[in-house]
Design goal:
The protein has helices at residues 35-50, 69-86, 95-100, 144-149, 162-173, 189-201, 220-231, and strands at residues 2-7, 13-19, 22-29, 59-63, 90-93, 110-117, 120-123, 126-128, 133-135, 140-142, 155-158, 177-179. The protein is α/β, with parallel strands linked by helices. Strand 6 and strand 7 (120-123) form a beta hairpin.
C-alpha cells in the first residue's frame, strides 16, 4: 500500500512516503516556518523524488495530536482535502503514540512529553509488551510538577518538552530520568506512517470529512469565546 504520512503536531514536522512497510522518503524541518508554508511543498518534493504522483497514493495517515493547535489544524485540513479529492482512506494516529513508537524494545517505560503552553505539558506513559508500545495512561494535559509526581523508577523521556523540564525531572527521579538522544526526541512522519499503515491494513480508518484533531483542552480562541458568552 502506497501511503502518505503527515506530522504537524509541533514546530518540527513534515511528511513521509511509504510503500507498505518500506520507508521511501521522509522530509522534516525544525525551524520557525509555519506548516502552511512548507507542508504541501514537502509532499510535492517527496512525490517527485520517489517518482509518484498523487494518483499513486492508496492511503493517508496523519498525526492528530495533542500538540500545536495551529499545526494540527493545518495538517488535518490538508489530509482531509487530499483524501476527499483522491477518494482514499485515512488513518488517524495520536501524536504521543507515534512518539513512543520511535523507541520500541525499550527496557524501561517511555514517556513522551510535549509543550502544551500555559504552564502545562501533554504526556502519556508506555511500555513494550513484546510486540508494540502499549499505553498505560490516558492522554493527559497537566503541569510538569503533576507529571513528575506520577512517575517513579527508570523512565525514558522524549518529545519537545523534556529539554526544558530536565532539571525538574532529574530532581524528582535522579538517575532514573533518562532522555532520548536528540535525533529520536521529536515526532517523526515515518513513525506516523508505520502506525497508520497497520491501522489501514486492519480497516481502522476514519471518515475524512469527520477527521478532527485531538486537542485535550480548549484552544485560546474557544476560551475567549466562552468568556465572552459569560460576560454577555
Amino acid at each position: 500500500m502506497r501511503i502518505l504520512a503527515v506530522e504537524t503536531s509541533t514546530l518540527a514536522g513534515g511528511a513521509a512516503l511509504l510503500d507498505g512497510e518500506r520507508l521511501l522518503g521522509e522530509y522534516t524541518l525544525n525551524i520557525r516556518v509555519t506548516h502552511s508554508e512548507r507542508l504541501m511543498a514537502a509532499v510535492d518534493r517527496l512525490l517527485q523524488d520517489c517518482g509518484w504522483d498523487l494518483a499513486a497514493l492508496e492511503g493517508i495517515t496523519v498525526a492528530t495530536g495533542p500538540g500545536s493547535f495551529t499545526g494540527l489544524r493545518i495538517g488535518v485540513s490538508a489530509v482531509k482535502g487530499l483524501a476527499l479529492a483522491l477518494g482514499i482512506p485515512v488513518a488517524a494516529v495520536p501524536t504521543l503514540d507515534a512518539l513512543a513508537a520511535t523507541l520500541p524494545f525499550a527496557a524501561h517505560p517511555v514517556c513522551p512529553v510535549l509543550d502544551a503552553k500555559k504552564g502545562e505539558v501533554y504526556a502519556c506513559l508506555y511500555h513494550w509488551d513484546g510486540t508494540a508500545m502499549v499505553r498505560d495512561w490516558e492522554y493527559l494535559a497537566l503541569t510538569p510538577e503533576a507529571l513528575s509526581q506520577r512517575l517513579s523508577g527508570p523512565v525514558i523521556f522524549l518529545g519537545d518538552a523534556p529539554a526544558t523540564l530536565r532539571g525538574l525531572l532529574e530532581a524528582r527521579l535522579g538517575d532514573n530520568a533518562r532522555f532520548a538522544p536528540a535525533g529520536r526526541r521529536l515526532p517523526s512522519p515515518a513513525s506516523v506512517g508505520a502506525l497508520g499503515h497497520a491501522l489501514l491494513l486492519a480497516g481502522r480508518t476514519v471518515d475524512a470529512a469527520a477527521l478532527t484533531p485531538l486537542y485535550l483542552r480548549p484552544s485560546e480562541a474557544e476560551l475567549r469565546r466562552r468568556r465572552a458568552l459569560l460576560v454577555h
